[in-house]
Backbone:
């Protein structure tokens, strides 16, 4: 499956590329701004999921925003960098055990090897 | 676990506290692998490591507050805070890793103390999680009650492999 590699603070994560409708860089996209805990993009008001807060990371000085689109809703996630798209075989992604999570809702569903370090895969079904 | 003496144990350090597990549930001891932190996981979960293609949950018992009766786990003496080893345990259908230092084999003997004979668990550990107390070379080693400990960590309850094979691999009754 094709994955978009992103950075959030010190953390390195992956997002299923199929779920990414747009990568929005506010430096070049004039029709994007944040309002309280929401984002307004081309007139559409979208919920912002704060992955930095969830990961205990500080937001960098120049975040870019991923517009994720699912069957039920569209949301915005801020990341500090969108690095690359990689094709990772589904069999290389190990599911995370549910019992490690403190709450039933979880933002990540799997982990795979990305060079020397493991990288977590965002759970788009739980988010969207 | 039967609690009978005469078993082989894996001893290790959590900070400066001595602890032990039945050898029968230990699959292997490895150098600490790269562990990735998982946002939203329990605070005592260090993260996950890829181990044989499986996402192995890695636990830092020093951060499991109920084990320390609400106190802080004793800090390691004269070394860095990072535990150097990973103790991989089989627990029913799942595997889990515990971080530890100074991992070694320990023989359980008849002279080791049942918790009921001791005036509370040493090392600041809650007696809820202590099965037996051992003393080796002047140091206290606490045999952890894995049934209670792993249940409290949220690990699914299951009949551990070590327990199914009482005898050869797990004379302690793991």
Residues:
């Amino acid at each position: 499956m094709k994955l978009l590699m992103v950075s959030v603070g010190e953390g390195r994560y992956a997002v299923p590329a199929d779920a990414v409708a747009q990568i929005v860089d506010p430096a070049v996209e004039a029709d994007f701004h944040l309002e309280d805990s929401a984002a307004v993009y081309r007139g559409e008001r979208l919920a912002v999921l704060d992955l930095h807060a969830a990961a205990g990371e500080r937001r960098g000085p120049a975040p870019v925003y991923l517009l994720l689109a699912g069957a039920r809703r569209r949301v915005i996630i801020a990341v500090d960098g969108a690095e690359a798209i990689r094709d990772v075989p589904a069999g290389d992604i190990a599911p995370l055990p549910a019992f490690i999570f403190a709450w039933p809702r979880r933002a990540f569903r799997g982990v795979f090897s990305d060079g020397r370090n493991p990288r977590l895969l965002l759970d788009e079904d739980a988010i969207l | 676990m039967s609690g009978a003496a005469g078993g082989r144990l894996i001893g290790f350090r959590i900070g400066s506290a001595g602890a032990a597990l039945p050898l029968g549930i230990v699959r292997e001891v490895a150098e600490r692998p790269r562990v990735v932190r998982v946002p939203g996981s329990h605070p005592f979960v260090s993260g996950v490591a890829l181990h044989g293609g499986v996402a192995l949950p890695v636990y830092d018992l020093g951060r499991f507050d109920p084990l320390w009766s609400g106190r802080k786990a004793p800090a390691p003496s004269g070394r860095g805070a990072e535990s150097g080893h990973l103790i991989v345990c089989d627990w029913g259908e799942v595997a889990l890793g515990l971080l530890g230092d100074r991992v070694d084999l320990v023989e359980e003997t008849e002279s080791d103390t049942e918790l009921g004979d001791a005036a509370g668990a040493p090392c600041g550990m809650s007696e809820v999680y202590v099965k037996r107390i051992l003393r080796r070379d002047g140091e206290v080693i606490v045999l952890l009650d894995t049934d209670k400990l792993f249940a409290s960590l949220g690990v699914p309850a299951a009949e551990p492999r070590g327990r199914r094979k009482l005898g050869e691999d797990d004379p302690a009754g793991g």
User: Anything to note?
Assistant: The two ends of chain B are 5 Å apart (CA to CA). Helices of chain B lie at 146-153, 161-164. DSSP finds two helices and ten strands in chain B.
